[in-house]
Design goal:
Elements (H helix, E strand, L loop, with lengths): L5 H8 E7 L1 H4 L9 E6 L15 E3 L5 E5 H9 L3 H7 L4 E4 L1 H8 L1 H4 L3 H24 L4 H20 L10 H8 L5 H20 L9 H22 L5 H14 L1
Parallel strand pairs: 2-4
Antiparallel strand pairs: 1-2, 1-5, 3-4
Helix pairs in contact: 7-8, 8-9, 8-10, 11-12
């Protein structure tokens, strides 16, 4: 099988696609972009080659980014904030059978580890804002708004065990920050309060200590196997790798 162009993997093998960014957060304005994120399942036979399929692909559309399924699940198990929020977007554009099973596993990725990863990400963003204040006398207000949103999301997740992406009735206070209408010292105090509330919530969170790695791994293995079997049926029947796949299928069916 000739390796397909990365964009073909996205076009032909996407299992899940959604809209993220301000539109998913409920913070879109007239000039907001539409950020699309997705997950594609590279055919198993591509992994039999020395050159493996890409772990992620930019495009083919503008503001579009996709991850290969295994990479996506690996990042989600490590509680990557961007990946977890992608799984919980309220704006799903596509989900086939594999994508729907991935969505059904959302709870398996959530654990108290989210406190550490969200907090680490927030700290990095806060350092950038502080550098802006030192250099320019003011932060990038849009980034300040999104940091507040992230801290709210982390706190509420730890409190409830549910990750909610849309900010709901917090939209207007957050947009006031984006427009620079809230003094920086008040924004700093707001951030500090949210971080402290998240710390407190982590100590009594209903979330498990760790994600359900075994459940996610079973899903990835089953999905890879299902992708391999049709390929084996279409390939050269004398190929030793194909014979092994077919023999394994026959044994399972006995």
């Amino acid at each position: 099988m000739q390796p397909p162009h990365p964009h073909a993997l996205v076009r032909d093998h996407t299992v899940y696609a959604c809209v993220m960014g301000s539109r998913a957060f409920g913070l879109a304005t007239d000039d907001s972009d539409t950020d699309r994120r997705g997950v594609f399942l590279a055919p198993t036979e591509l992994f039999w080659r020395f050159e493996k399929p890409p772990t992620h692909v930019e495009g083919p559309a503008e503001e579009q980014f996709s991850w290969e399924l295994e990479r996506f699940c690996s990042l989600a198990l490590r509680a990557n904030p961007n990946i977890l929020e992608c799984l919980h977007s309220p704006l799903v554009e596509h989900a086939d059978a594999t994508g729907r099973e991935l969505l059904s596993l959302r709870g398996a990725f959530l654990s108290r580890q989210t406190h550490e990863t969200f907090a680490r990400y927030a700290l990095g963003q806060r350092k950038k804002l502080d550098a802006d204040v030192r250099t320019h006398g003011a932060p990038r207000w849009k980034h300040a708004m999104h940091l507040l949103r992230l801290l709210m999301s982390c706190r509420d997740l730890l409190r409830t065990g549910t990750l909610t992406v849309d900010v709901g009735d917090r939209r207007e206070p957050l947009l006031e920050v984006k427009r620079g209408e809230v003094p920086w010292d008040r924004v700093e105090s707001w951030m500090a309060r949210l971080a402290a509330e998240a710390e407190e919530a982590a100590a009594r969170s209903p979330l498990p200590a760790e994600p359900d790695r075994a459940r996610v791994e079973d899903f990835v293995v089953r999905t890879r196997r299902a992708s391999a079997l049709p390929a084996a049926g279409q390939a050269d029947p004398d190929d030793e790798v194909v014979q092994g796949v077919v023999r394994g299928r026959a044994l399972r069916q006995r």
